[in-house]
Structures are given as structure tokens and as C-alpha cells.
Amino acid sequence: MFPTTEQLRREWSEFRRVGRLLAMACAALALVALGLLHASGNHASCDGPCPDRPTAPDGTLVHDRFSFLHRDMGAHGSITVRLTSMTGTLTYPPPHHDRIVPGLVPWAKAGIIIKDGLRPGSSYTALMVTGGHGVRMQYDYRHDIAGSTARVTGGAAPRWLRLTRSGDTVTGHESADGRTWTRVGTARLAGLPETVRVGLFATSPGDLTLRETGLGGATEQVRWTQAGGTFDSVALQGAAAGRWSDGAVGERNRTDWEKDHLASGAVERNGTITVTGAGDIGPAGAEDGVSPVERLLGGLIPALLVVLVVAARFAATTRRTGPTAGTGTGAGSRTRARPRLAAQAVVVAAVTFVTALLALGIVIPVGLAILKGNGVPVIGVSAFTGTRLVVGTAGALALAAVLALALGSLLRRAWLAILVAVLAVAVPYAVTSIPLLPDGVAQGLLRVTPAAGFAVQQTLVAYPQVVAHYAPSAGYFPLPWWAGAAVLCAYTGALLGLALNRLPRGDGGPGAAVGQG
Predict the structure, then answer these.
(1) Is there a contact between 204 and 227 (Cβ–Cβ < 8 Å)?
(2) d(CA 101, CA 447)
(3) What φ, ψ does residue 272 adopt, rounded to 5°?
(4) Which of 213, 359, 401, 452 could form a disulfide with 352 if both were Cys (CB 3.0 to 4.6 A apart)?
(5) 3-state SS string over 205-248?
């Protein structure tokens, strides 16, 4: 069943006809041209010079905006506080968006923080009580450790919080009574300077309201929110002498609500301190107007269509030519036909993979350079993720081509094989990418159809501590990349195996045996 070098050479000679090579060139051109067209037409738009987006120590784009009552701390020390209550404000809630009401969003935060200065994007560790997720310890934007489920709203008991610094290591503890403490977690902040800022903070991310609209998934409406925490029993060790400073990381008091009603900041009264703020501390995503790398793959849909047509026609056309050697029938002819189909699969996969790899190797770096030149912030990816995006997408196209080849061999009619391949692979991917379907339907298609394999292109990360629309219409696949690739591999392997064992009669199948018995 395994093809020989001679069989591979013969099938490559058969494949490299002018029409097929032109078609593959068109697929590559679509990938490159549409990706660069997207990059060239995408420009940053700001009232005046666009502000720099905060970047974390690892270079990724982040949110970093909160009210901060702070002072200096040395290389060893701690801060202990009691958080007695949390309150908040929600502006313009649905359905009419015409009221301001009290309340806290689930990821509203109030607590204590140790941070490498006031620069947005600098390293930090924070221990907090949230509006709906209990006590959390978060550090360097992407990391989140769950503590107890304690809340301090609606008359709930106060919560004690403590952060202890020892060089680059920060440890968080919580307590219900200030005597018995439970460790929440430990963070190591590489390169933390000798002197850091320590203090009380509060912030509250925008609340996301989704409305299903049928075709096109859901519309997103973000409403501004504000949160405040009231603290007492503040105790410091290792802090420099001096007064507390009421400040902020990032901007604050720009909204009409803050200007006219309740300003964000710190207020000390009767032995308690209330810190009020808006914003968020965490990783940035596509919902923030930041471009993910995979937005450059707009040409993948036409390229996929071309690849499916070429592969299905190649199989259906060559099936009519019979075995490549000899004119015998029956088992011998069938034995020769199996390696031939295997050789065709290798040729189609290799040509598709190399073509896509070359196109992606052009459009990704060039497109990113154009976007950055246009002032568009782009979500950074690691070397592994970038490699997986390019190699994995090329591999997914190659697997889709083999799937279409197997259908062409099974169905024998090119038009029927193309129709089935397009409906199974291209249509689910297209209608979920554009998008044209409700999120629930789109997620189902990307779980059970071969289009799941294109999850290899996703660079967006669904962070549980970040409010976002994690759905195909926003660029999020329901399966991790390896699981999506496994679904596509399973479909392709099953169809190719079926085609190898059920060859058409004219190609040496069981019915081709004449004069036997």
C-alpha cells in the first residue's frame, strides 16, 4: 500500500499540469493579496496622537488602569489590611441603557498590590476581593490564582488580606479574623527592583452585554462601571517613611460620571480609607480594538476552495485512467491501485503544504510590518505560537486537500466530491469566520465538522479573568488547536482509509474481476 519513489514521481508528473499549478498559484496569491489588503486598509484612528498601549514585561499588550493609594517599600516587607465592604456603580444597563444603578460586575476588584512603580505595564502582584469570584491573587497580567469564595458585599463579613515581599518573591495570604491565615499563592517577579510601590487599589472593567441577532452572531455593548473598597486596620512592614500618595496607574476621572458625581480616588474618613476606581488589570484582547495575527488570514477561504476543487478533480479524473501499470484485473489490479491513491495523497498534501507555507511565510511578517507601520497595535505571540500558526494552517490545508482527494476517489464524480468537500470543510469555516450564524450554531459546527482543524490558526487566548465575547464571531474557536487538528485528522484518515479499501470498479475494485470462478 505504501507508494514507491517511482509511483510518487509518476503522480507528481500527472499533477503538475499547467491548470493545476496555476490554480495552486492562485490559492497562494489569494492568501497573500487579501491578507496584505487587510493590513494596508487598517489604520489606527485617534483624536490626536494615539497613546502608547501598555505592554507587560514580556512585551504583550495589557490593560493597566486603576486607582492606587501608595507608598514606597523595600526589598523585604508586607502590607496587611482589612477590607470591610465593596460598592460599585453600573451605568446605562439594558434594556434601554438610560439609568445608573448601584452594583458590582463579577470582576470588579479591590485589595492590595505590590508594583514595580507607576508605569502602566510594569510587573505586579495583587491580592483582592472581587465582585463575584471571591478572593483572587493575580500577577503579571496573565496569572490568576483562586482563593476562598468570600465576599464583602451585601452585609458579608470583612476579609483580611496580606502580601509579603521577600526579594523577587511575593506571597499572598487571606484571613477571616486576622489571626488564622491561609496562603492563597506565591508569585516570582523576575527583576523586581529594590524599591517598589505598595498600597491599596480599586478598579472595575466594563461590563459586556451580548444580544443575539440571528445571522451574524451577537452584538456587543460595553457599559462603564466603577468599584470602591473600604479598608481599615492597615499595617505596613518594611515601608519607607513618608505619607501615602493618592494617584493612579493609567488615566482616571475622564468620564462625566467621575467628573460630575463620584470621582475615582482615595478618601480617608474616621479611620477608614475608601479607594474608588475604574479600569482593569489584565491581558488585552481582540475586543479592545487590538488586531490578532490571524486577521491576516482573510484569504484562507478562497484558498481553501481552490485546494478542495483541485484535489477532488485530480482524484476523480485520474480514477478514470485505470491502474498505472499493466492491464490486469481483480486482486492484482486492486493492489496496484492502492499504492497509486496513497501516492496521490502524498503528492497533493506535499504540494498544498509547501504552497501554503510559502504564502503564509510572506503574508504574516509583511502584514504585521504594515499594521505596525499604520499604528495598529497587534497582540504579540510567542515563537511557538507563531510557528504553530504558520505550519499548522499549512498542515490543515494539506489535510483538507487529502480529504477532498479521498472523496474524489470514493465518489468518482468530481462535481459531487467538490460539493461534499465544500459543504463539509469550506462552508462551516466560512460561515463561522465571517460570521453568518448565531454563536451556538457556529460553535457546534467548529466542534464536529472537519473545519475544526483550522483552530490551529488561533492566537487569541480566552482568559477566565477577562470579560470578553469568547465565540467564533469574535475569533475564538471552541476547541483548543490540538483538539481541532485531531478532528480534521480523524475525518481525513477515515475517508482515505475507506477510499483505499473501496476503490471504484474500473480501478481494480472487487467488481473489476472478470472471468474469475
Answers:
(1) yes
(2) 39
(3) -120, 155
(4) 401
(5) CCEEEEEECCCCCEEEEEECEEEEEEEEEEEEEEECCCCCEEEE
Q: How many whole angstroms separate alpha carbon 302 and alpha carbon 418?
A: 14
Half-sphere exposure of 398 (CA within 13 A, CB side): 22
Q: Which residue, among 416, 393, 395, 417, has the nearest Cα to 406 in the 3D structure?
A: 417
Total residue count of the chain as it appears in this document: 517
Furthest CA-CA distance within the chain:
105
Q: What is the dihedral of CA 164, 165, 171, 174, to 10 degrees?
A: 20
Q: Which H or E element spans position 109?
A: strand 109-115
CB-based contacts of 440: which residues, under 8 Å, 6+ apart? none
Q: CA Rg, the chain, in Å? A: 30
Which residues, listed in sequence order, are joined to residue 86 by a DSSP beta bridge?
229
Q: Which three cell numbers stand for residue 140?
A: 503579571
Q: What's phi and psi for 102, nearest 5 deg?
A: -75, 150
Residues 6+ apart with CB under 8 A from 301: 426, 429, 430, 433
Amino acid at position 517, single letter: G
Q: Distance between CA 439 and CA 351 in Å, rounded? A: 34
Mean pLDDT by 10 residues, the chain (517 residues): 85 92 96 95 77 85 95 96 94 71 93 96 97 96 94 86 97 96 96 95 85 55 88 92 92 88 92 95 78 90 96 79 45 63 95 97 95 86 92 97 95 92 94 82 93 94 86 88 97 94 51 33
- The model carries a pTM of 0.83
Residues 122, 277 contacting (CB under 8 angstroms): no
